Structure formats: structure tokens, C-alpha cells
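Lab meeting, action items carried over

1. Structure of the four-component assembly. Owner: GW. Status: complete.
Input record:
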Amino acid sequence: MARPREFDTDEALERAMQVFWQHGYQDASLPDLLDGMGLTRGSLYKAFKDKKSLFLLVLDRYESAQVDAGVAMLTDPANGDGRTRVLALFGGLVAAVAAGDHRGCLLCTAASSAAADDVEIASAVHGGLAKLQQGIEAAIADIEGIAPGDRLRLANTLLTQYIGLRMLARSRLPMGILEQSVEGVADILDRAAR
Amino acid sequence: MARPREFDTDEALERAMQVFWQHGYQDASLPDLLDGMGLTRGSLYKAFKDKKSLFLLVLDRYESAQVDAGVAMLTDPANGDGRTRVLALFGGLVAAVAAGDHRGCLLCTAASSAAADDVEIASAVHGGLAKLQQGIEAAIADIEGIAPGDRLRLANTLLTQYIGLRMLARSRLPMGILEQSVEGVADILDRAAR
DNA sequence: ATAGTTCGGAACCGATTGTTACACAACTCA
DNA sequence: TGAGTTGTGTAACAATCGGTTCCGAACTAT
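Predicted assembly:
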């Protein structure tokens, strides 16, 4: 009935996520996206409406890929006890930076930018972070010695730590913080568990 | 010999800081700055060279005003013991947000934006954060029961916590984290001191 | 008075922003 | 094969960006 699409929508979305992840919502220019996605203006607007709609799809993809993977790791008993799983989350973060990944967290970057003024974007960002929050809380619940009443507060502390570290990862600042952050988190966990 | 400046340079710089604080370096447009500072293009370029030079002056002002004030509070024994001083830092942060201040941290915002690619800006940002790091470490040194070898790591953990909280403050997300963050920090301190 | 400097303000620069319009190509279905 | 439909590619859009340059007016110091 009509001409078929010459590119794979899913793959284009994946590439768009990489561009937004590196540059943020506003600082990712349309030429940046077109280059990264490998298509032209006409195709992009035909397939994804406009820049904001594309970003909302990317946020959704990020949540169902990156965030859900982290939550799955935090909640799967096969990965060890709760303490091990939490430390694995932060260890993965440090390892990524050591490997040259300075993109930080797509959600955190969006949350602190002017993009957060948009209701739909803010809502999507909030959903992703809340999901991560619950993942951390679930892992904490699998650590012995931590009172149930302390779980939420501790989870919030760790989520804040996670956000701070990902911002530092993005900054490329030689503060020497990331290198010993896992030990710092381990201290928090071990001293909370008594 | 010449016509005197009709505006106060210091006051203009203060207003410029407010604009950059709220919008970040890139997202603060020239009209934004002109409106906020209450002067015209000709005057701004005559007095401050260009946008980047103005921002560097603002970063310097931020460090010698906001950061130094925080460090002074962290290091002055008149404000109580080290624990009290650290908690006051975070308490002030929470109070500011509760009062409607969602500007976050000028240094943190700059650090995570593309402005950090500029060497001079990155250097100034690093200097400010390092100063804060040392202030926190000094306060920790005044807490009994914390081994000297643990101070730096604990200071880094708290600085990360501080950065994360200020990013959350900027996001306006209703995560319910800021409200109980002081208790979370108190837990970290109390459990580290044994 | 005069030389020197800064003022506010407008005009303009080239570049970039996200978006739209349109002609053409490609495909399916009858 | 031809009609109908949709994607592709490119040009052009209006708006804004940061930055620069000009101007007559205002003012001070010599």
C-alpha cells in the first residue's frame, strides 16, 4: 500500500539514545541527531514527530533498558545477597567510568536541565528514578541487620550517592572520588547493618 | 578624564551570578543576562569582554562568596563540633529548597554541562569543589571516634551526597529524598564514629 | 573649552536553532 | 499497469543565538 521504511526504527531509537545520553536534551542539536541516527530531517520528522517526542521515546527506551537492567540486577538473588548486589551497582558505575564512559545518567542530566520544566519529560524522569529507588530498597531488604524502618531512608541516601557519582562521572573532574566510592558505600552498608 | 560607569560592577556581577545560577552557562542567553543585570549589550561587552569572561568572573565570585561561606561554617568551632557543622551544611541546603530555592549548585551544574569541556571553566569548577571537599574533611577531623585514615573517604562520600542532593534540589522532583536527607547524613556520621 | 571615555541603544553579522513544505522515489494493491 | 500511499531528501523557513560595531549623547579631568 505504501513505501516501506528504509531504516530500522528500533535501531534509530537506540542511536538517538546514545546522542541524547552524551549531549543531554537541549545540547543535542538536530544535526547531531541526524548524524548519529544516520537519517535526514524529513525521515526523522515523519517517523518521530519532533525532537521532544523523540526524546520521550528515548526516555522510555532508557528506562526499559538501562534502568530495568539495573533493577533486575539489584533484585535477583542469583547475584548474591543484598549487600553484594548494591555494591555491584556502584562497582559497575566505577568500571564504566574507568572504561571511558563519561555520559553519566541520562535521567539525571535531564532532571537538572531546563528540560525538566516540561511536564511530560519531568514525569518520565521521575518514573525512572523512582523505579531505581525501589530497586535499591529491595536489595536493602535482603541485607540482614537493617531494620525495616531504616530501609527507605538508607535507600534514599544510596540513590543520592548514585546520582552524585554519575554527575561526577559526567564532569571528568579529577577529584579522586569515584575510585574509592565503592568502599564508601560498603562502609555505609556495613555500619547500617547491626 | 572619562565618563564614570553608571552601574556598580560588583552589583552587576552579583546579578549575573543569579542568572547563571538559575539557567546554567549555556542556557543563559545574552538577553537573559542583559535583563537580569539591567544593562545593554554595549555596556556588558565594554565592562566584561564577553560571555565566557563574565562567567569566569561569576565562578570566582561564587567561590569566594558561596563556597567560602560554606567552608567557613564547616571549619569554625564556634558553630559547634564537627558533626553539628556538617549537619548544618546539609540542613541549610534542605531549608533553602523548602524556601523555594531550586537553583542547585552553580559549580555542579557547570561541571555536568558542556561548559566543562572548556579548560578554564573546568579548572575553576574543580577548584571550588576541591575547596568544599577540604572543608568537609576539616569538619570531620573535629569529630571524635573517626579514624584519621577514614576521613578522606568519608569526606568524599559526603561531598558526593551533597552534589546529589543539590542536583535533586534543581530537579524539583517529588522524590521525598531531600526531606529526610539530614537524618541520612546523621546516620552516616554517627555510625562512622566508633 | 577640549580631549578622552563610557553610556544606552540600535543595527548587523554569520551561524545555528527546530520546524515545515514540497517534489520525487518507492512500494503495495487492485 | 496504473492509482494510491508513504517514506526520502533537500530547500527554505522564521526565530534566535553570541558577538561585534557603530552612533550621538553624557560626563569628567585637565
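2. GW to write a short summary for the group page. Key points so far: The mean pLDDT of chain B is 96. The CA atoms of residues 44 and 50 of chain B lie 8 Å apart.
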